[in-house]
Structure formats: structure tokens, C-alpha cells
Amino acid sequence: MRAVSFRSGRALLAAMSLAACSSDSDSGQILPPKTEVPAQGNPQEDTAISNTLRPELLAFTPELIQRLTVAPGFQVSLFAQDLGDPRMMAVAPDGSVYVTRPKKGDVVLLRDTDGDGRAEAPRAVLSGLENVHGLTLHEGKAYVATPTQVFAAALLADGTWGPHQLFVDRLPDGGQHPNRTLAVGPDRKLYISVGSSCNACAETNPEHATMLRVNLDGTGREIFARGLRNTIGFGWQPQTGEMWGFDHGSDHRGDDIPPEEFNKLLPGKDYGWPYAYGARQEDPVIDKPKNMTKQQYAAMSEPSVLDYQAHSAPIGMVFYTGTQFPAEYQGDAFVAMRGSWNRKPATGYKLVRVHFEGGQPVGFSDLVSGFLLDGGRAHLGRLSGVTQAADGSLLLGDDTGGAIYRVAYRP
């Protein structure tokens, strides 16, 4: 599928008008439908708008995988099942796959020792951490996050972990977005995504709705960027080393605003939430901030680079560095769109490719879709984490179906 470049605001509104007639399908549309931001004085300015549609979850069976739609040359198979709520994943150099399970409060190890493409029975390497979510590996250590703490543990030779030790304490209480995610950047610092405590509000804790950064000895904790409602998926483009993240837009503004933002994450920048979104568009519902207008706040915020359909709910994200996919996929990002509960028709529920050219993003296309069934009234899973396996395939988590899928290229 050809990638299409677009932005919110000036270029996006023009592009959206061309896409409006086909935007409600779930078949790889990469431009959102036409949206209008209310002008000053419009009655919608102070009125929340919300549609609720929660597609029914179908009981998971391996046969349902055959109903998925994949990009040409790719196939999806079942890597693991009966995992409960697999969420974030990380892969060790030896191919071991570690998976957090927030409801079970543990991290499990998965291995495919016989090379048949299916993991053997999971083995717990950590337990007793309620709502454990974020996970990253770096230089022989594992880092995991609960809503308010980060722990570190040594990776042992047999794939198990040593005792976990407190690494970061007193993260802001969870609120509406309690799931913290972690990654170590090229600067050898640990980045911690902290979502907002609410849908749209003026936060009282300055560390809410931010990207935090801390040294690997636990010192130097700081706010790297702010105005990020819930940037669960983030990473560094391998060609440029630049940091990118996918942020969740606010709810209750209608079916098509605000968009999900694909942002270049820069130190010291404010990305606008809760007062602005996209290419410095003013939020139509929330009251203005103290000491300035929403227009002034929007003008000082960092605009998004690309925008995606509102309410798609981007979760896990990974940049591709493997060789199992064709060469043109090198340096592209893959994002698990968990899917909407507050849009009619439903959107998301797919694995999306972010196309990069010259180290910069230019558009989106679907890699795996079809998780929505029966015209969007049912779904066979909601996606969570995505990571690159040791062989270069992608592993895609589904925390409602309790499964992990393997996405591989088979021309």
C-alpha cells in the first residue's frame, strides 16, 4: 500500500475532505474523515460529545486468526495462547521473550526451543508486582514498571531474573492512565512515560502527562517533555536516533477529534494537551489555562508531525531493524492500535506501519487488520504490545484474547 503524508490543521483538513467518503471502513484507510474544529462562540465549544460503542469480544480460538487481513507477502500465526493478559514484551539477545501480565502481577518467559514457531509453556521470572506493565532490557538488566515504581533485576544465564530492586519510586498515582512504559535511549538514560490522571484537566502534579528521564544509576530524574496525554508507545528511529511517540487524544470531542498524534519528542517541549492538539488546534471543550488564552497556549506548543484517526488508541510501538521483512521496512515503525470504545463506527484494532523516508515519517498503512468483525460490532482481540523477535518477525500481543501472534514475511 502506498504511504500518504498528512498533517492536522492546514494540510490535514484539506486532505480529510478528500477521504471523508471512505473513512469509516477498517480496511487500511490512512486519512481520517473530515473534521471541523468549532469556531469561537460555537455552542459546541463548551459541550462534550461522545459516542459509545464497545464491540463484543468473541471467545478466542486459533481458527479466528484465519480471518485476519495482512499486507501482501505476510502471514500471521499463533506464537502463544492462554496467557491471560499479555501486555508489554521485550526480547533478549538469545531470543527469550519476556511478557508483563498486569492483572496477574507477573512477568513470564517464553521460549521456542524446538523452532516450530510456537512458544513452550510460560515460566514466571517475577511475581507479586500488582499492575506491572512497562518492560525493557538493557545490558543484562531488566527494568519493569508499576503505576508508581520502577524495579530493576539482573538477567541470569538460564533466562530467569535475580531479585528485583527498587529503581525509581513515587511516580504520580495512576489515575485514568496508570500504565507506565519504559525504554532506554541512545543517550543511555531510562525514559518513563507517565500518562494523565484524567481525560482533560489541568494537572496538579507536574509529572503527570509527561515523558520522564532518569540516569541508569537512578539519579537525575527530570521531565523530558510534557503535554503528552498518554504516550505509551515510543522509540528511536534507527537511522537518525530521533525519538518518536504516539499520543492518545482526549475523549468526548466527537468521533473524529482530536486525532492520535505522532510526535517527534524533543527535550523541553510541550505538546499541548489538554489545551491544544495536532497542528496547534485549540481543544473545543476545556476551559482556557491560567494567565493566557487557549490560542496563546496552542501557539507555544509543539505541533504533531502526523495525525491518525481519533480514538484508535495506539499502545505498543517498535522500530524495525531486522532482516526478515523486505529491505524497505527497515527503519519503519509498527504500532498496535488497541481500538476504540467511544466512536461509531469503531476504529483501530489493527497493527499499523508508519512509513519513514529519509528518517522522517510520511504516512501510514495497515500491516494486520481484521480484528473487527460483523461490521465493527464484534472483535476477536484488542492489541497491546509489539516487539521484534530475534529472527526479525514481529510479536503482537492481545490482552483480551490472551494470545501473542507472530507476523512474518513469507513471499
TrEMBL record:
The keyword Nucleus does not apply. Pfam families: TrAA12. Residues 1-19 form the signal peptide. InterPro entries: 6-blade_b-propeller_TolB-like, Beta-prop_PDH, Quinoprot_gluc/sorb_DH_b-prop. Keywords: Signal. Residues 69-363 form the Pyrroloquinoline quinone-dependent pyranose dehydrogenase beta-propeller domain. It comes from the Bacteria. Residues 23-47 are annotated as: Disordered. PANTHER family: HEDGEHOG-INTERACTING PROTEIN (PTHR19328), MEMBRANE PROTEIN (PTHR19328:SF53). This is L-sorbosone dehydrogenase. It comes from Stigmatella aurantiaca (strain DW4/3-1).
